[in-house]
Amino acid sequence: MEEMTAQEKQFHKMTETPVPGLVTKLAVPTIISMLTTAIYNMADTFFVSQLGTSAAGAVGIVFSLMALIQAVGFMLGMGSGATISRLLGQQENREANRVGSTAFFTALFFGLLLTVTGLSWGSGLMRLLGATETILPYAQAYAQYILFGAPVMCASFVLNNILRSQGRATLSMIGIATGGVLNIALDPLCIFVLDWGIAGAAIATLFSQCLSFCIMLFFFLSGKSTVRISIRSVSRKPGVYWTIIKTGLPSLFRQGLASIATVALNVSAAVYGDAAVAAMSIVGRIMMLIGSAMIGFGQGYMPVVGFNYGAKRFDRVRQAFRYALVVGTAFLTVLGVVGFILAPQLMALFRADDQAVIEIGAFAMRAQCLTLMFQPVSVLSNMTFQTVGRSWQATFVSSCRQGVFFLPFIYLLPALFGLTGVEITQTAADFCTFLCCIPFLVRFFRDLRKEEDLGKAVPAVR
User: Fold this and answer.
1) pLDDT tens for each residue of 33-79
2) What single-letter DSSP state applies at residue 402?
3) In this structure, how many other beta carbons lie within 10 angstroms of the beta carbon of residue 264?
C-alpha cells in the first residue's frame, strides 16, 4: 500500500507540477551528473597530457573505444528508460520492472562480450582506431583497463537512465558525481605519485566507474527506486528486447557513430602529425564539457515528456519542449561566445609548451563555438522522438551529426582545404544537422495537435 502511494505521488508530481519548475528540478541533477562525467574526462586528458603529446593523442584514440562501450550502454539504458517513462505514465509499474530488469542483465552480458572481444584484438584494435606508432604504446596501456570495466560501464548507464526515467535524477547524480570526484582525485595519485603513467589514468577511471555502479545498484536493492531490478523479472519474450533495442537505437547510432567519427577524425588528423591528433582530442573533450550541460538539461526534460505523453497530457509536452529550447539556446549561445574568446587560453591549459597544438585546437574550437547555438534543436529533437517512441525518426536524427554529415565531410573537406578541413568538419556537420531537424519537428507537433484534437472529440461523440 505504501509503495502504491509513493508511485501515485510520483505520477501526480510528473503530470501536474508546473512544467518549467519540474524540468528545471529534474535537469539540475542530470546537468551536474553530465558535467561531472565531462570534467573527469577532461581531468584524464589534462593529467595524461602532462606525459607528452603522444600520450595526449592516446586519450583521443581510446575515447573512440569508450564511445563504443557507451553506445551499447546508452542503447539499453535510453531504450529502457524512455520505455519505462511511458509505462509509468500509463501506471504499468509491473511491466516497467520487467523492462528495467531485462535491460540491466542484458547490459552486463554485452559488456562482458566487449571485454573479451577487445582484449583478444590487442594492438590491432588500437591501430584500427587510428593510433600512430608513437601513440600505440600509450593507447594499449590505457585501453586494457577500460576494457576490463566494460560490463560495469554498460550496466551503470542502464541504472542511471532507469533512475532518471522515473524522476529520481538526484539519486543518479549521487552515484555519478561520487565516482567522478573519486576519479579526479585518483588521477594524479595513480599517474604521478604511484608512477603508473597513462595506465594510472585508466585504473582511476575503472575504480570510479565501479564505485558509481555500486552506489546506484544500492538504491535499487534498498527500495529507493520505484522500478525494481530482479533476475526473476528478466523477460523471455523477444518483444520486450525488441522494444528496448528499437527505442534505444538512436542512442546506439549516436554513440556508435561518435566512435566511428572519432576514428575517422584521428586518421585524418594523423596525416598532420601527433600535434593535430592531440589538438583535436583536447578540443573534443572541451566541447564535450560544454555540450554535456545541454545533454544534462535534455535528460531532465525527457522524463517529463515521457510521463505526460504516456498520460496523454500533450499540452505539457509542447510546453516542456518550448521551455527547454529557449533555455538551452540562450545557455549555449553564451557558452559559445565565451569559448570563442578564450579558445587559445583553454588549449594552453593542456599543452602550454606545444604551440602547434594550441594553434590547431584554438581554430577548431572557435569554429565549433559558432554553431553551439543550433545544437539545442538537434539534441531536443532526438530526445523528444526517442522518448515518445518515434524510434525511426529519432534514429535518423541521431545519425546526422556524427554520421550522415560528419563522415562524408571528414574525407571531403580535408581533401579540399587540408588541415583547415579537419578543423571545420564538426562545424559543418552541426549546422546541416540543425537544418535537417526542423521539418521533423514541424511534422511531430502537427501530429501531436491532431492526436490531441481527436482525444477531445471522442467524448463529444459519445
Assistant:
1) 888 877 777 777 788 888 887 887 888 788 878 878 988 998 999 89
2) I
3) 20
